[in-house]
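Entry under discussion copied across for reference:
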Amino acid sequence: MVKLYAMSVFYKAPSEARLLKSAYDLQSFSFFQRGSVQEFISFASKTLVERTQAATRQSVKQDVYMCHVYVRADNLGAVLISDHEYPHRVAHTLLTKVLDDFSAKISKEQWPSASESSIDFSTLPALLTKYQDPREADSLTKMQEDLDETKIILRNTIEAVLERGEKLDDLVYKSESLSIQSKAFYKTAKKTNSCCNFG
């Protein structure tokens, strides 16, 4: 089944990635898992943007997820979390559209200091819903021509994106953005290798 779970826009500052806007579709998870799943998606997305060089695209496999990342040369970045069935080319075309729409609406001067609550970019949830069906992206074929010249780096795990010697487990446990419940959920999910495992 083709599925999009989340889409986020970030500004990649020199020291960390700043979340500017995000949208989620977590209806396929149990009500009690959604909070932890959302925290992990947010954590993984931020980590991927921080570890992706400017003017680079990546698609990173992580268990049942594909994490598509694009950081533009101006350090505006976006992440799309999907299942493995969602076409990579469509995912990256969508990321390009999201960043183009975002930069047309939100001035570059706002990116470094803005927060998710201060940014008015209400089209993100609508785009996440509309493009659940990749065929909706047919109207984006013009942008695909630009993508054809861009190499998309495919990684087999999130570990491959981390810096040498870095481990996802360590990042999870050191993270101040993840709650105690989410860290416990991560540990349980890792042991059972469930669908919500990002590690």
